[in-house]
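Researcher: We plan to redesign the surface later, but first we want a full-length starting point. Tokens attached.
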């Protein structure tokens, strides 16, 4: 990999390790709700593929939920692909694709919501101790966005 590709491949290095995650998830989407459900999760993230990818495993203590994110960096276009799977849906969702620029990671893709396709955006704010992830959906192709999930990470190890 060239040096620019190496820089891009390091985009998620801040996430390597163990975390406690404070989740805030919008109770209802696209109805003007301001009610948030709060819960705690844990995760562990490790590098794969000689640093060109990583695998994050997530759990919610006291529940049977388990999920994972597989992130792969493509040095040819400088983009990351984020693939999510969990034991609720039992399949890998279509990837979110994007990159880090000016200290923020923006990733876009399509998601299913109540039987229809909506545009999805992940926003990553890197930090060595307290990174933040937000998910937002758009019903109008990205003209307007509704943030529906926020995850605040705290390093545990």
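Model: Full-length starting sequence:
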């Amino acid at each position: 990999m060239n040096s620019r590709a190496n820089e891009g491949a390091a985009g998620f290095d801040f996430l390597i390790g163990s975390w406690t995650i404070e989740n805030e998830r919008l109770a209802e989407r696209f109805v003007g709700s301001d009610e948030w459900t709060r819960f705690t999760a844990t995760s562990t993230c490790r590098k794969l593929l000689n640093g060109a990818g990583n695998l994050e495993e997530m759990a919610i203590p006291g529940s049977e939920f388990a999920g994972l994110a597989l992130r792969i960096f493509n040095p040819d276009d400088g983009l990351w692909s984020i693939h999510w799977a969990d034991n609720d849906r039992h399949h890998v969702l279509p990837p979110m694709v994007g990159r880090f620029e000016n200290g923020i990671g923006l990733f876009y893709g399509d998601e299913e919501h109540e039987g229809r396709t909506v545009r999805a955006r992940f926003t990553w704010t890197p930090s060595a101790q307290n990174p933040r992830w937000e998910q937002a959906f758009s019903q109008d192709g990205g003209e307007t966005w509704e943030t529906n999930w926020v995850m605040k990470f705290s390093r545990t190890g």
